[in-house]
Amino acid sequence: MAREILKTHDLIFASREKILASKALYDGADIIFAPYGSYWRELRKICVIELLSAKRVKSFSTVRQEEMSNLVGYISTMNNSPVNLSEMFLLISNTTTSRVVFGTKCKHGPRFISAMKKLVEFLSGFSVADLFPSLSFVDTLNLRLKKCHREMDEILGEIIKEHEEKRETMNSSNEERQQGEDLVDVLLELKENGGLEFPLTITSIKAVIMDMFGGGTETSSTTLDWTMAELMRHPEIMEKVQAEVREALKGKAKIKEEDTNEFHYMKLVIKESLRLHPPVPLFLPRVCRETCQMDGFKIPAGSRILINAWAMATDPRYWRTRRALGLRDSMAARWTTKVATMSTCLWCRQEDVPGDDLWHGSGGDGPGQPTLLF
Ligand code: HEM
Protein backbone atom coordinates (compact mmCIF):
# COMPACT_ATOMS: atom_id res chain seq x y z
CA MET A 1 0.00 0.00 0.00
CA ALA A 2 2.83 2.41 0.92
CA ARG A 3 4.51 1.58 -2.38
CA GLU A 4 1.30 2.44 -4.23
CA ILE A 5 1.15 5.78 -2.45
CA LEU A 6 4.84 6.69 -2.59
CA LYS A 7 5.53 5.39 -6.08
CA THR A 8 2.65 4.32 -8.32
CA HIS A 9 0.26 7.13 -7.37
CA ASP A 10 2.83 9.53 -5.99
CA LEU A 11 1.46 12.53 -7.86
CA ILE A 12 -1.97 12.10 -6.28
CA PHE A 13 -0.43 11.98 -2.81
CA ALA A 14 2.35 14.51 -3.30
CA SER A 15 0.74 17.31 -1.34
CA ARG A 16 0.70 18.12 2.35
CA GLU A 17 -2.20 18.85 4.59
CA LYS A 18 -2.29 21.99 6.68
CA ILE A 19 -1.77 20.83 10.24
CA LEU A 20 -1.00 22.83 13.35
CA ALA A 21 2.76 22.45 12.85
CA SER A 22 2.55 24.06 9.40
CA LYS A 23 1.34 27.27 11.05
CA ALA A 24 4.63 27.53 12.88
CA LEU A 25 6.37 27.20 9.52
CA TYR A 26 4.76 30.26 7.97
CA ASP A 27 1.57 28.51 6.93
CA GLY A 28 3.13 26.33 4.27
CA ALA A 29 5.56 28.94 2.85
CA ASP A 30 8.35 26.44 3.61
CA ILE A 31 9.39 23.30 1.70
CA ILE A 32 8.13 20.72 4.18
CA PHE A 33 4.52 21.93 4.28
CA ALA A 34 4.16 23.74 0.94
CA PRO A 35 1.33 22.26 -1.11
CA TYR A 36 2.43 20.38 -4.22
CA GLY A 37 2.97 22.80 -7.12
CA SER A 38 5.45 25.14 -8.75
CA TYR A 39 6.23 27.11 -5.56
CA TRP A 40 7.21 23.91 -3.75
CA ARG A 41 9.17 22.71 -6.79
CA GLU A 42 11.13 25.93 -6.91
CA LEU A 43 11.96 25.91 -3.19
CA ARG A 44 13.04 22.31 -3.47
CA LYS A 45 15.25 23.15 -6.44
CA ILE A 46 16.88 25.94 -4.43
CA CYS A 47 17.46 23.47 -1.63
CA VAL A 48 19.01 20.83 -3.87
CA ILE A 49 21.05 23.11 -6.14
CA GLU A 50 22.01 25.95 -3.83
CA LEU A 51 21.71 25.07 -0.15
CA LEU A 52 22.51 21.39 0.04
CA SER A 53 24.62 20.86 -3.09
CA ALA A 54 27.78 18.77 -2.61
CA LYS A 55 29.94 21.87 -3.17
CA ARG A 56 28.06 23.92 -0.58
CA VAL A 57 28.05 21.11 1.98
CA LYS A 58 31.80 20.73 1.49
CA SER A 59 32.34 24.46 1.95
CA PHE A 60 31.16 24.11 5.55
CA SER A 61 33.42 21.21 6.45
CA THR A 62 35.62 23.44 8.66
CA VAL A 63 32.57 24.29 10.78
CA ARG A 64 31.71 20.62 11.22
CA GLN A 65 35.32 19.73 11.99
CA GLU A 66 35.62 22.46 14.61
CA GLU A 67 32.38 21.49 16.31
CA MET A 68 33.35 17.83 16.28
CA SER A 69 36.75 18.51 17.82
CA ASN A 70 35.09 20.69 20.49
CA LEU A 71 32.86 17.75 21.39
CA VAL A 72 35.69 15.21 21.42
CA GLY A 73 37.83 17.65 23.45
CA TYR A 74 35.04 18.19 25.95
CA ILE A 75 34.42 14.47 26.41
CA SER A 76 38.13 13.80 26.86
CA THR A 77 38.30 16.31 29.72
CA MET A 78 35.57 14.45 31.58
CA ASN A 79 37.85 11.50 32.47
CA ASN A 80 35.56 8.89 33.94
CA SER A 81 32.67 11.19 34.90
CA PRO A 82 29.32 10.54 33.22
CA VAL A 83 28.54 12.61 30.13
CA ASN A 84 25.03 13.31 28.91
CA LEU A 85 25.56 12.44 25.27
CA SER A 86 21.97 13.24 24.28
CA GLU A 87 22.51 16.83 25.35
CA MET A 88 25.86 16.95 23.60
CA PHE A 89 24.44 15.56 20.34
CA LEU A 90 21.62 18.08 20.28
CA LEU A 91 24.06 20.87 21.07
CA ILE A 92 26.49 19.96 18.31
CA SER A 93 23.68 19.51 15.83
CA ASN A 94 22.15 22.90 16.71
CA THR A 95 25.42 24.79 16.87
CA THR A 96 26.69 23.40 13.58
CA THR A 97 23.39 24.21 11.82
CA SER A 98 23.34 27.68 13.33
CA ARG A 99 26.88 28.44 12.14
CA VAL A 100 26.12 27.14 8.66
CA VAL A 101 22.81 28.96 8.30
CA PHE A 102 23.45 32.23 10.18
CA GLY A 103 27.24 32.47 10.06
CA THR A 104 29.83 31.98 12.76
CA LYS A 105 29.63 35.51 14.12
CA CYS A 106 25.85 35.72 14.50
CA LYS A 107 25.03 36.62 18.09
CA HIS A 108 21.36 35.60 17.80
CA GLY A 109 22.10 31.90 17.18
CA PRO A 110 21.75 30.73 20.82
CA ARG A 111 18.46 32.66 21.26
CA PHE A 112 17.06 31.11 18.11
CA ILE A 113 18.14 27.63 19.18
CA SER A 114 16.45 27.95 22.55
CA ALA A 115 13.18 29.15 20.92
CA MET A 116 13.44 26.30 18.42
CA LYS A 117 13.77 23.76 21.24
CA LYS A 118 10.52 25.07 22.73
CA LEU A 119 8.80 24.82 19.37
CA VAL A 120 9.97 21.24 18.81
CA GLU A 121 8.66 20.30 22.26
CA PHE A 122 5.24 21.73 21.38
CA LEU A 123 5.18 19.94 18.07
CA SER A 124 6.27 16.49 19.20
CA GLY A 125 3.23 14.30 19.55
CA PHE A 126 -0.28 14.66 18.21
CA SER A 127 -2.41 17.72 18.73
CA VAL A 128 -6.11 17.54 19.55
CA ALA A 129 -6.87 20.13 16.87
CA ASP A 130 -5.21 18.00 14.17
CA LEU A 131 -7.02 14.83 15.16
CA PHE A 132 -10.42 16.42 15.87
CA PRO A 133 -10.62 19.76 14.02
CA SER A 134 -14.05 20.50 15.53
CA LEU A 135 -12.44 20.46 19.01
CA SER A 136 -9.69 22.89 18.07
CA PHE A 137 -11.13 25.47 20.50
CA VAL A 138 -10.06 23.28 23.46
CA ASP A 139 -6.52 22.99 22.16
CA THR A 140 -4.32 25.55 23.91
CA LEU A 141 -1.37 24.41 21.85
CA ASN A 142 -2.39 26.81 19.12
CA LEU A 143 -1.87 29.83 21.40
CA ARG A 144 1.44 28.57 22.77
CA LEU A 145 2.58 27.89 19.24
CA LYS A 146 1.63 31.38 18.08
CA LYS A 147 3.60 32.96 20.91
CA CYS A 148 6.64 30.85 20.18
CA HIS A 149 6.36 31.53 16.47
CA ARG A 150 6.20 35.30 17.09
CA GLU A 151 9.42 35.11 19.09
CA MET A 152 11.19 33.11 16.37
CA ASP A 153 9.93 35.43 13.67
CA GLU A 154 11.36 38.41 15.54
CA ILE A 155 14.77 36.76 15.94
CA LEU A 156 14.85 35.72 12.27
CA GLY A 157 13.87 39.28 11.28
CA GLU A 158 16.85 40.66 13.20
CA ILE A 159 19.22 38.09 11.71
CA ILE A 160 18.08 38.84 8.16
CA LYS A 161 18.29 42.62 8.74
CA GLU A 162 21.88 42.26 9.94
CA HIS A 163 22.76 40.17 6.89
CA GLU A 164 21.19 42.77 4.59
CA GLU A 165 23.18 45.55 6.24
CA LYS A 166 26.36 43.52 5.90
CA ARG A 167 25.65 43.00 2.18
CA GLU A 168 25.21 46.73 1.66
CA THR A 169 28.57 47.59 3.18
CA MET A 170 30.39 44.82 1.36
CA ASN A 171 32.32 45.28 -1.84
CA SER A 172 30.11 44.04 -4.66
CA SER A 173 32.83 41.76 -6.07
CA ASN A 174 31.57 38.22 -6.18
CA GLU A 175 34.73 36.75 -4.73
CA GLU A 176 34.60 38.86 -1.58
CA ARG A 177 30.92 38.06 -1.16
CA GLN A 178 31.38 34.34 -1.45
CA GLN A 179 34.01 34.27 1.24
CA GLY A 180 32.36 33.49 4.55
CA GLU A 181 28.96 33.16 2.89
CA ASP A 182 26.31 31.48 5.04
CA LEU A 183 22.93 30.13 3.94
CA VAL A 184 21.09 33.37 4.78
CA ASP A 185 23.53 35.19 2.45
CA VAL A 186 22.82 32.64 -0.28
CA LEU A 187 19.06 33.06 0.09
CA LEU A 188 19.30 36.87 0.07
CA GLU A 189 21.45 36.74 -3.06
CA LEU A 190 18.84 34.52 -4.73
CA LYS A 191 16.09 36.89 -3.64
CA GLU A 192 17.85 39.82 -5.32
CA ASN A 193 19.54 38.27 -8.34
CA GLY A 194 18.21 34.73 -8.63
CA GLY A 195 15.90 35.28 -11.65
CA LEU A 196 13.42 32.86 -10.10
CA GLU A 197 9.96 31.99 -11.39
CA PHE A 198 8.56 32.82 -7.94
CA PRO A 199 10.54 35.67 -6.42
CA LEU A 200 11.72 34.71 -2.95
CA THR A 201 10.18 36.81 -0.22
CA ILE A 202 11.53 37.45 3.28
CA THR A 203 8.76 35.15 4.54
CA SER A 204 9.88 32.28 2.33
CA ILE A 205 13.49 32.82 3.42
CA LYS A 206 12.44 32.65 7.06
CA ALA A 207 10.35 29.54 6.37
CA VAL A 208 13.24 27.75 4.62
CA ILE A 209 15.55 28.56 7.55
CA MET A 210 12.98 27.06 9.92
CA ASP A 211 12.96 23.89 7.77
CA MET A 212 16.73 23.58 7.99
CA PHE A 213 16.54 23.69 11.78
CA GLY A 214 13.27 21.82 12.24
CA GLY A 215 14.13 19.12 9.69
CA GLY A 216 17.85 18.76 10.25
CA THR A 217 18.75 19.12 13.91
CA GLU A 218 16.56 16.86 16.06
CA THR A 219 16.57 14.15 13.38
CA SER A 220 20.38 14.04 13.33
CA SER A 221 20.84 14.08 17.10
CA THR A 222 18.12 11.46 17.64
CA THR A 223 19.92 9.20 15.16
CA LEU A 224 23.12 9.52 17.18
CA ASP A 225 21.24 8.93 20.44
CA TRP A 226 19.80 5.66 19.20
CA THR A 227 23.07 4.56 17.65
CA MET A 228 24.86 4.99 20.97
CA ALA A 229 22.05 3.20 22.80
CA GLU A 230 22.24 0.25 20.36
CA LEU A 231 26.03 0.12 20.68
CA MET A 232 25.71 -0.05 24.45
CA ARG A 233 23.27 -2.92 24.06
CA HIS A 234 25.67 -4.70 21.68
CA PRO A 235 29.17 -4.47 23.22
CA GLU A 236 30.65 -6.77 20.57
CA ILE A 237 29.57 -4.35 17.83
CA MET A 238 30.81 -1.40 19.89
CA GLU A 239 34.20 -3.08 20.03
CA LYS A 240 34.33 -3.48 16.25
CA VAL A 241 33.36 0.16 15.72
CA GLN A 242 36.02 1.31 18.18
CA ALA A 243 38.66 -0.83 16.50
CA GLU A 244 37.74 0.63 13.10
CA VAL A 245 37.90 4.23 14.38
CA ARG A 246 41.23 3.65 16.15
CA GLU A 247 42.72 2.08 13.04
CA ALA A 248 41.52 4.90 10.75
CA LEU A 249 42.77 7.63 13.09
CA LYS A 250 46.02 5.96 14.10
CA GLY A 251 48.75 8.58 14.59
CA LYS A 252 46.50 11.53 13.68
CA ALA A 253 46.34 14.44 16.10
CA LYS A 254 43.20 15.93 14.56
CA ILE A 255 40.13 14.31 13.03
CA LYS A 256 39.40 15.48 9.49
CA GLU A 257 36.13 14.94 7.69
CA GLU A 258 37.85 12.82 5.02
CA ASP A 259 38.93 10.40 7.74
CA THR A 260 35.31 9.33 8.15
CA ASN A 261 35.50 7.82 4.64
CA GLU A 262 37.30 4.96 6.32
CA PHE A 263 34.46 4.34 8.79
CA HIS A 264 32.75 1.70 6.62
CA TYR A 265 31.46 -0.46 9.43
CA MET A 266 30.36 2.51 11.51
CA LYS A 267 28.29 3.83 8.59
CA LEU A 268 26.49 0.49 8.37
CA VAL A 269 25.78 0.61 12.08
CA ILE A 270 24.32 4.12 11.78
CA LYS A 271 22.15 3.06 8.85
CA GLU A 272 20.91 0.04 10.75
CA SER A 273 20.12 2.23 13.71
CA LEU A 274 18.17 4.55 11.37
CA ARG A 275 16.19 1.56 10.19
CA LEU A 276 15.36 0.32 13.67
CA HIS A 277 14.66 3.77 15.11
CA PRO A 278 13.66 6.16 12.34
CA PRO A 279 13.63 9.67 13.88
CA VAL A 280 10.40 10.37 11.95
CA PRO A 281 8.57 7.06 12.43
CA LEU A 282 5.38 8.38 10.84
CA PHE A 283 6.03 10.37 7.68
CA LEU A 284 4.59 13.85 7.69
CA PRO A 285 0.92 13.70 6.69
CA ARG A 286 0.16 13.79 2.99
CA VAL A 287 -3.20 14.56 1.50
CA CYS A 288 -5.02 12.73 -1.29
CA ARG A 289 -5.53 15.27 -4.11
CA GLU A 290 -8.11 13.33 -6.12
CA THR A 291 -10.41 10.41 -5.36
CA CYS A 292 -8.77 7.15 -6.37
CA GLN A 293 -9.03 3.37 -6.00
CA MET A 294 -6.31 1.47 -4.24
CA ASP A 295 -6.13 -2.14 -3.14
CA GLY A 296 -9.94 -2.37 -3.47
CA PHE A 297 -10.52 0.75 -1.36
CA LYS A 298 -11.91 4.03 -2.53
CA ILE A 299 -9.81 6.87 -1.14
CA PRO A 300 -11.75 10.12 -1.26
CA ALA A 301 -10.01 13.37 -2.18
CA GLY A 302 -8.94 15.26 0.94
CA SER A 303 -8.13 12.12 2.98
CA ARG A 304 -5.16 12.44 5.28
CA ILE A 305 -2.46 9.83 4.66
CA LEU A 306 -0.06 8.70 7.36
CA ILE A 307 2.74 6.32 6.40
CA ASN A 308 4.32 4.23 9.10
CA ALA A 309 8.00 4.20 8.19
CA TRP A 310 8.94 2.30 11.31
CA ALA A 311 6.54 -0.57 10.50
CA MET A 312 7.95 -0.86 6.98
CA ALA A 313 11.53 -0.77 8.18
CA THR A 314 11.02 -3.47 10.77
CA ASP A 315 8.57 -5.79 8.99
CA PRO A 316 9.97 -9.34 9.52
CA ARG A 317 8.72 -10.37 6.07
CA TYR A 318 11.41 -8.19 4.49
CA TRP A 319 14.11 -7.91 7.11
CA ARG A 320 15.87 -11.14 7.89
CA THR A 321 19.38 -11.79 9.11
CA ARG A 322 21.64 -13.11 6.38
CA ARG A 323 23.43 -15.95 8.15
CA ALA A 324 25.01 -17.02 4.86
CA LEU A 325 27.35 -14.11 5.17
CA GLY A 326 28.80 -15.54 8.30
CA LEU A 327 28.49 -12.20 10.07
CA ARG A 328 27.68 -12.67 13.70
CA ASP A 329 26.58 -9.10 14.23
CA SER A 330 23.06 -9.38 12.99
CA MET A 331 22.52 -5.70 13.55
CA ALA A 332 24.75 -4.71 10.66
CA ALA A 333 23.97 -7.77 8.55
CA ARG A 334 20.34 -6.80 8.16
CA TRP A 335 21.23 -3.52 6.56
CA THR A 336 20.57 -3.54 2.83
CA THR A 337 20.83 -1.32 -0.19
CA LYS A 338 17.10 -1.00 -0.07
CA VAL A 339 17.28 1.22 2.96
CA ALA A 340 19.69 3.42 1.08
CA THR A 341 17.01 3.71 -1.57
CA MET A 342 14.47 4.50 1.10
CA SER A 343 16.59 7.27 2.57
CA THR A 344 16.82 8.78 -0.88
CA CYS A 345 13.06 8.64 -1.10
CA LEU A 346 12.73 10.76 1.99
CA TRP A 347 13.65 13.59 -0.29
CA CYS A 348 11.21 12.62 -2.99
CA ARG A 349 7.73 13.96 -2.76
CA GLN A 350 7.08 13.47 -6.42
CA GLU A 351 7.41 10.82 -9.05
CA ASP A 352 11.20 10.84 -8.85
CA VAL A 353 11.41 7.84 -6.54
CA PRO A 354 14.29 5.68 -7.79
CA GLY A 355 13.12 3.18 -10.38
CA ASP A 356 13.99 0.00 -8.48
CA ASP A 357 11.33 -1.68 -6.42
CA LEU A 358 11.76 -0.52 -2.86
CA TRP A 359 11.20 -3.74 -1.06
CA HIS A 360 11.54 -6.54 -3.59
CA GLY A 361 14.84 -5.84 -5.34
CA SER A 362 15.69 -8.06 -8.25
CA GLY A 363 19.23 -8.57 -6.99
CA GLY A 364 18.16 -10.42 -3.85
CA ASP A 365 18.33 -14.15 -3.33
CA GLY A 366 14.64 -14.89 -3.41
CA PRO A 367 11.28 -13.20 -3.33
CA GLY A 368 11.23 -10.39 -0.82
CA GLN A 369 14.89 -10.80 -0.01
CA PRO A 370 16.68 -7.54 -0.55
CA THR A 371 20.18 -7.14 -1.96
CA LEU A 372 22.92 -6.82 0.62
CA LEU A 373 25.32 -3.97 0.62
CA PHE A 374 28.33 -5.84 1.85
C1 HEM B 1 18.71 11.64 10.08
C2 HEM B 1 18.36 12.74 9.48
C3 HEM B 1 17.02 12.99 8.80
C4 HEM B 1 15.88 12.24 8.78
C5 HEM B 1 15.62 10.89 9.44
C6 HEM B 1 14.90 12.96 7.99
C7 HEM B 1 13.61 12.52 7.75
C8 HEM B 1 12.71 13.15 6.90
C9 HEM B 1 11.38 12.66 6.56
C10 HEM B 1 10.77 11.37 7.07
C11 HEM B 1 10.81 13.54 5.72
C12 HEM B 1 9.41 13.48 5.12
C13 HEM B 1 9.38 12.65 3.87
C14 HEM B 1 8.01 12.56 3.28
O1 HEM B 1 7.01 12.79 3.95
O2 HEM B 1 7.93 12.22 2.11
C15 HEM B 1 11.79 14.61 5.52
C16 HEM B 1 11.59 15.70 4.71
C17 HEM B 1 12.41 16.79 4.70
N1 HEM B 1 13.62 16.93 5.36
FE1 HEM B 1 14.57 15.52 6.40
N2 HEM B 1 15.45 14.13 7.57
C18 HEM B 1 16.75 14.20 8.04
C19 HEM B 1 17.67 15.21 7.85
C20 HEM B 1 17.39 16.41 7.24
C21 HEM B 1 18.31 17.51 7.11
C22 HEM B 1 19.76 17.52 7.63
C23 HEM B 1 17.63 18.52 6.49
C24 HEM B 1 18.08 19.89 6.10
C25 HEM B 1 19.23 20.42 6.30
C26 HEM B 1 16.29 18.02 6.20
C27 HEM B 1 15.29 18.75 5.57
C28 HEM B 1 14.12 18.19 5.11
C29 HEM B 1 13.19 18.89 4.23
C30 HEM B 1 13.35 20.32 3.69
C31 HEM B 1 12.12 18.01 3.97
C32 HEM B 1 10.87 18.27 3.12
C33 HEM B 1 11.04 17.67 1.74
C34 HEM B 1 9.77 17.83 0.92
O3 HEM B 1 8.67 17.81 1.48
O4 HEM B 1 9.91 17.94 -0.28
N3 HEM B 1 16.19 16.73 6.67
N4 HEM B 1 12.93 14.34 6.24
UniProtKB/TrEMBL annotation:
Transmembrane segments: none annotated. It is found in: Membrane. Gene3D superfamilies: Cytochrome P450. GO terms for cellular component: membrane. Pfam families: p450. InterPro entries: CYP450_71D, Cyt_P450, Cyt_P450_E_grp-I, Cyt_P450_sf. Its main location: membrane. One of its GO terms (molecular function) is heme binding. Its cofactor is heme. Keywords: Heme, Iron, Membrane, Metal-binding, Monooxygenase, Oxidoreductase, Transmembrane, Transmembrane helix. It comes from the Eukaryota. It is a single-pass membrane protein. PANTHER family: OS06G0641600 PROTEIN (PTHR47953:SF19), OS08G0105600 PROTEIN (PTHR47953). Belongs to the cytochrome P450 family. This is Premnaspirodiene oxygenase-like. It comes from Phoenix dactylifera (Date palm).
